[in-house]
Design brief:
- With about 80 residues, the chain is α+β, with helices and mostly antiparallel strands.
- It is built from 3 helices and 4 strands; from the N terminus they run αβαβαββ.
- The strands form 2 sheets. A two-stranded antiparallel sheet has the order 1-2.
- About 5% of the residues are buried.
């Protein structure tokens, strides 16, 4: 458990968000798994306040993250 690419991306992202003190909530299949509803996923879904997303993007775009769709909150882990 915990070795799939999506899980690695989740752990990496949440470590960054925690380190930077940016609040977030995990949603989607990862959240469902925590409550015993087994789902397979290939992406990480979370919600953040707009200003916190902007702060994350200012620091991390081009440093391991890129916008999947420019001008949105849809990002991709480039590693």
């Amino acid at each position: 458990m915990g070795e799939a690419d999506a899980q690695k991306a989740l752990y990496k992202l949440t470590a960054i968000l925690e380190q930077e003190g940016l609040p977030y909530a995990i949603i989607g299949a990862f959240a469902l798994n925590e409550y015993g509803h087994r789902r397979v996923t290939v992406d990480v879904d979370l919600v953040m306040r707009e200003e916190d997303l902007r702060s994350f993007k200012e620091r991390w775009l081009g440093r391991g993250y890129a916008e999947r769709a420019p001008g949105t909150g849809k990002l991709v882990d480039t590693e």
